[in-house]
Structure formats: structure tokens, C-alpha cells
Amino acid sequence: MALGGTPWAHRLLYTSENGGKGGVLQGTPDYPSITDDLSGVFGRAGHEGIQADAQGNLILVEDTGGIAGSANPHAKQPNSFVYRFQPKDPANLQRGGRLQVLQVMSKAHPGAVVFHAADPDGDIKSQDMKDLHTYGLVFQTNWITIHDTDTQGNVSFSANALAKAAGGTPFKRPENGQFRPGSHFQEFFFDETGDTNSLTETGADFGGFGAIQKLTLKSNADQVALTLS
């Protein structure tokens, strides 16, 4: 669970790291707090860190563990995503908006780095995972809209499932995210937990021991850059 906030709406934001039952709640800062479930806006996922930028957009990181591999039984398939929410009205999140997933373009093949449900071991030790955890490489990324309350309403949905279907890029359990002070909300760092197992077959080369990633952002732009930090 993580705590964030949005000064535009004068609300505290609580995220629940509870897999398909997780999500985002908002609460008034007074006591007793009045809370609202925003699963029809942000979706259900193991959301963790949540941060607002200068425009009132919110970036969320998901911490949802994947399954172990057969050839790599101490390593887990990347199964977590990074999201951006663009509200219709930053002062009232219940009015909805667009939820987007981060998509990273591959350096090893045409197209994006995506999740393969039928090939856990392939994802665990893919060239893409190795590249994502190699210093000096800079990746083109896109924000892909996966849910828009204007067209899909505000009924609860699985953000994780929509992220996979849209071609979002899975990471190894991001735990927290933070804008770098003084970067004018143009540098966002998030840390991957990794496999949390000293016996992992992936090690540092494939993110098994965790990593810190940096997004270089432009206000409301759909293309940003990702680097290992």
C-alpha cells in the first residue's frame, strides 16, 4: 500500500497492492475521512506508488508478481506495468479520464516489449529484459490509452489485463515512483523489486536483483524516454 495525493482535488490517494483486487481509493484529509473507491477510473491492479505532475496527471506503478518459470524456477515472469492517468478534471477524479500504460519499444526486434502468457521462461530471459537492465541504452516509449471513461464508463475493470492486451511493457514489480526534485516533473524514477530470491537464475543482467529506471517526460506528450539509472 502507498499514499499519495492530489492538491487539485484536496484528496489523499491510497493504493492497494492486492493483485486483481487492488486499486485506488481517495479520501478527504479530515477526520473521519470520507473515502471513495476509484476502481472504475484507475482499474483493479496491484497499484503501489502514485504521484501527480504539474498538470494533475497521475503516474502509477504496479507491483504484481508473475509466475515462476520451468527452466528458471527461482525467477518470476515480469507482470507489472507503469500507468499514467489523465483526468478530465484534476479537481474531481470521479469524473474520470484516460488511463494509459507505458509501452517500451524493443531494441532486439521490431515492435514493443510485451507480455507472452504462454512463454514465462522466454520473458524471464529475453533479450528485451537484458536490454532493459543494461546501462547506457535509451528506449523510445509510448503512452497507450487502455481505458477512457467517456467511452467505457466507470465500471470496475482489470487494468493489468487491459495493459497486456494493449501491448504494454511488463516490469519486474515496481515498488515506488518519484519525480526528481528540481526536474520540473520531467524526470520520474521507479524501482523494480525484482525476484526477491537470492537463488534467482536471472541475476542483475535480467533484473532479478531489482533496478532503478528513469523516465524522461514532456508535459502531456505520449512519447518519452526510458533509461536504466
Quick rundown:
The protein is built from 5 helices and 13 strands. The protein is mainly β and 229 residues long.
Keywords:
229 residues, globular, four-stranded antiparallel sheet, 5 helices, nine-stranded antiparallel sheet
Q: Main sheet?
A: 9 strands, antiparallel
Chain-averaged pLDDT = 94
Estimated radius of gyration:
17 Å
- Percent range for β-strand residues: 25-35%
Helix and strand composition category: mainly beta
Strand order of the largest sheet: 5-6-7-8-9-13-12-11-10
Walkthrough of the structure:
It is a single chain. This protein has 229 residues and is mostly beta strands. The chain has one domain (2-228). The chain contains five helices and 13 strands. 44% of the residues are buried. The mean pLDDT is 94.
Question: Which helices and strands, and how do they pair?
Answer:
Layout: E1 2-6, E2 11-16, E3 23-27, E4 35-37, H1 39-42, E5 47-52, E6 58-62, E7 82-87, E8 97-104, H2 120-124, H3 127-132, E9 138-148, H4 149-152, H5 159-165, E10 174-179, E11 187-192, E12 211-216, E13 223-228
Antiparallel strand pairs: 1-2, 2-3, 3-4, 5-6, 6-7, 7-8, 8-9, 9-13, 10-11, 11-12, 12-13
